[in-house]
Amino acid sequence: MTESQTEKYGFLIDMDGVLYRGADLLPGAGEFVRELRVREIPFRFLTNNSQRTRRDVIAKLARMGIEAEEEHVFTSAMATARFLAEQKPDGTAFVIGEGGLLTALHQHGYAVVDHDPDYVVVGEGRTFNLELVETAVRMIMGGAKLIATNLDPNCPTANGSLRPGCGAMVAMLEIATGVKAFSVGKPSPVMMRAARKELGLSTDETTMIGDTMETDILGGVQLGFHTVLVLSGGTRREDLQKYAYRPGVVVQNLADFSDLMNRHDWGNPWQHTSAFAPLPVAVG
Ligand SMILES: [Mg+2]
């Protein structure tokens, strides 16, 4: 065993645009996760999508050939439920969202109500309609706090187009009420820090891998994590010029990142800056 292998490190891995896109597995995703498991390198899948439960996520990954356990999944729904349980134990919530969010809230001692809630909680889903919005607006004006699982403006769909994300729905409530939502998902430190604690690692031992500058990379940079941007999702290399922050490393996909990791036999990649030398670390 080389010295570097004794160094602790682990990964927070975004899913959409990193592991898969729609129903298609992205290059190197299966192999990367398998390698982490075999080598017992800690990791969590970190997703802002609050629609699915942990079990749903594992089932989706299994269909694509990625084997993982429920403990490997950390969603914005879980982060939101945990956060609310800390802020106000045994509270009540009016929910605009789906199974993942409802399950997480129940698991953290929350009652889902349609009358006089402590919080209005908004996640992704297809249940959104004007009747719900009207009810939510009334509750917020009556003093309920507005919570968003995330503020992603849109989400990629299987056919390559976009659908409105949680952020778009939250914006409607914000404008109607004049109340700003508190968002828990990436890049919020609430979710990023909770995920890092799940790994059992320190800031410097944690690497965030993602495809979105506004969430994955921004959150990672703000928390002081190492960051890896994959170009297999929504970001193109030429986009990087417009951001005031940059990822530590840019790779095409997880297959490329695995090649890098292989060069140092999967030792802590940040101990070997030379491992990343051939890569365009800075752009523009
Ligand atoms: Mg993504």
Automatic annotation (TrEMBL):
NCBIfam families, sorted: HAD-SF-IIA
Record-given protein name: Putative NagD-like phosphatase
InterPro entries reported for this sequence: HAD-like_sf, HAD-SF_hydro_IIA, HAD_sf
Statement: the UniProt record of this protein carries the keyword Ligase: no
Transmembrane segments: none
Co-factor: note: Divalent metal ions. Mg(2+) is the most effective.
Keyword Ribonucleoprotein: no
Cofactor or coenzyme needed: Mg(2+)
Gene3D superfamilies noted in UniProt: HAD superfamily/HAD-like
Key words of the record: Magnesium, Metal-binding
Chain sites annotated for binding substrate: 186
SUPFAM superfamilies xrefs: HAD-like
Coiled-coil region list: none
GO molecular function: metal ion binding; phosphatase activity
Catalytic residues identified in the record: 14 (nucleophile), 16 (proton donor)
GO cellular component term, pick one: cytoplasm
Family: Belongs to the HAD-like hydrolase superfamily.
Residues given in the record as Mg(2+) binding sites: 14, 16, 211
